[in-house]
Amino acid sequence: MYFLLLFVYKQEMYSVASVVVLIFLASFSYASVNSHSSKTALKYFYKDHLDQAVCLQEAPCRPIHNATCFGTILPYSFTSFALAEDSLSHFEVQDNLALWQGLRSVPRCWAVVQPLLCAVYMPKCENGSIFLPSQEMCRITRGPCKSVEVKHSWPSFLRCENKKLFPPRCRNPLQEVKFNTSYKCIPPLVETDNKDNWFHEVEGCGIQCQNPFFTEEEHDNNHFLIKIFAGACFAMGLFAVVTSLIRWKAANRYPGVIIFYINICVIVASFGWLIQFFPGARERIVCRHDGTMHLHQPSSGEHLCSLTFVLVYAGVVAAVVWFIILTYAWYLLVVRASGSPKDIIKKKHSSFHSAAWSLSIALTVIIMGMKG
Questions:
Q1: pLDDT for 278-295, tens place per residue?
Q2: Residue 156 buriedness (CB in 10 A; 0-12 / 13-18 / 19+)
Q3: Which Pfam families match (predicted)?
Q4: Are 295 and 197 in contact (CB under 8 A)?
Q5: What is the pTM of this model?
Q6: Domain 56-184 sits in which CATH superfamily?
Q7: CATH number of 216-369: 3.40.1190.10, 1.20.1070.10, 3.40.50.11540, 3.40.50.300?
Q8: pLDDT one-digit tens code per residue, 220-233
Q9: Rounded CA gap, 76 and 78, in Å?
Q10: Closest to 89 in 3D by CA, of 79, 99, 75
């Protein structure tokens, strides 16, 4: 009985000891976790305060008489003139901001440069510190505003290389402000998303389809002349082909049959010129859907432009090759005395066709496959 009580007592002591150990381990783990969490929180606390210090700059605050920038109401009422080196007063700020309004004609640039200019010329000032524009606000303007760099270059206080003036990863109150971005490209430029049609450094704008150097009357006169000459070529070529078919037995011999093929090529090329006079065809041939001219063809959805090119180019090339063959046939008939010229021409019948049609098709395919 004594041994039984002693055994039970030992078991209870072991249980109590185990519980104490478990409580100690739990307390140690909890303290470690709390210590780690406290260190992490302290780390982020100091980091946030450090970032906030980098994003601010000490400067005297001045009240804003007109709390608008490019017509947009600013979400604060105090500013400073410490960032813009060319402005020492509200009047100079307004005058210098007005000089940048020419960028309204470059819509993509204007959309991203407004927050940057307002953040530099009219920064938010609070408790003797101004909110600096971020590096991201500056960098985003370099692409769409290439024209500034090319034509005039950025002033020193708007250069993104200055990391003190444009610190990275800073939140600026003007990043949340919605500016007016409803401006359009100035004629003769029109808006386009096609990079191939952008006019030099004016991103998002391309030359309009209709040539701006000619008046509407001059365009009409050119179209009238094209209609007359293309129509005459088509009519004469068709007349020659019809008459040749009527007397085909007499016409189907060299060199007369070569003239028949030349007239077929003339009909094809002339029809390519005349397609533009069908209702709405000229705009589809010459212009893209956004109002700019076709460049680097062919592309999807522009089959009429490609068809016109094939008819005109292939028809003209084939006609030129057949004309060269005609001069060769005349040379054989007139100059060459030995042998029968007609027999020589007949032997080269297949070579003539291969040269005329293969060359025109090959050149057409090569040009259509080129990108520039």
A1: 998 998 888 888 888 877
A2: exposed
A3: Frizzled, Fz
A4: yes
A5: 0.63
A6: Frizzled cysteine-rich domain (1.10.2000.10)
A7: 1.20.1070.10
A8: 999 999 999 999 99
A9: 6
A10: 79
